[in-house]
Design a protein that fits this description.
Elements lengths: L1 H82 L3 H28 L2 H6 L1 H16 L2 E5 L9 H22 L3 E9 L2 E8 L17 H10 L3 E6 L5 E8 L4
Parallel strand pairs: 1-2
Antiparallel strand pairs: 2-3, 3-5, 4-5
């Protein structure tokens, strides 16, 4: 009898161990699959964003090298015609030249927004400073910038992602929050880079339906995740909005 009980007990223990091994293998496989799926989604997002940046760069070059050059040529020809025309014609041509100058400014700004070459040429620190000045000049949004020198220089993908997120967050502050002031802070510590954009606007309920898919939050989150970072938004009605993005200083 004791021998039989021992056999039953041994069989029970063996069965339990086998089940535990199967469950462990299943959980490991599930975890590996989940990590693989996340990696594939991140790579897909990275490629999509890279393709978008390439297209933006192409359009920006066409605006700068074609449209703006044509405007400059037309402007030059009109100046010549004005010099040889009567006063009334010269006055009308002067008005057209003014319109062309305004159009050139609009296209130049659009080209810069499509592809911020300053990030590549001057680095993220100066690019964010120029972005703040642009919002202050064009949108009346006072932006206080706190960006220390970054050492070592950030990877290109992280720098562009940080710039785009800052640009979108400030655009949201201008369009939706009614804020007159915003803070833009970039810090580097412990192998990570943290970008914070905080405004003093009306804020919103982050738990409201549809909020997570609006205000450019999806695009900002995808940009952060594509370079191995993460993005968070903190806001409440009447309490302003804070966008925080954390990036690895080195992208593997």
């Amino acid at each position: 009898m004791p021998s039989r009980d021992l056999t039953v007990w041994t069989f029970f223990v063996a069965s339990a161990l086998s089940l535990a091994i199967v469950l462990s293998a299943f959980l490991v496989a599930l975890l590996i699959n989940q990590r693989r799926r996340i990696a594939m989604e991140r790579e897909h997002a990275r490629r999509m964003i890279a393709a978008q940046e390439d297209e933006r760069s192409r359009v920006a070059r066409e605006l700068h090298d074609d449209a703006l050059q044509r405007i400059a040529m037309i402007r030059h020809e009109l100046d010549d015609a004005s010099a040889h025309g009567n006063p009334e014609m010269a006055r009308r041509i002067s008005g057209v030249c003014g319109e062309l100058d305004d159009l050139g400014t609009v296209l130049r700004t659009a080209a810069h927004q499509l592809h911020p070459a300053v990030v590549e040429k001057a680095g993220l620190r100066r690019a964010l400073g120029a972005l703040a000045e642009e919002f202050g000049r064009a949108a009346g949004l006072e932006v206080r910038v706190v960006v220390p020198p970054l050492d070592p220089a950030l990877p290109s993908g992280v720098a562009v992602a940080a710039y785009r997120i800052a640009q979108e967050a400030l655009r949201n502050a201008r369009r939706h929050s009614g804020a007159g002031r915003a803070d833009l802070v970039l810090e580097e510590s412990g192998g990570t880079v943290t970008l914070v954009v905080a405004d003093t606007g009306k804020g919103f309920d982050t738990t409201a339906r549809g909020v997570d898919g609006g205000l450019g939050l999806i695009a900002m989150r995808q940009r952060a995740e594509a370079v191995g970072g993460r993005l968070g938004v903190r806001s409440r009605p009447g309490g302003g909005t804070t966008v925080t993005a954390v990036f690895p200083a080195v992208v593997s």
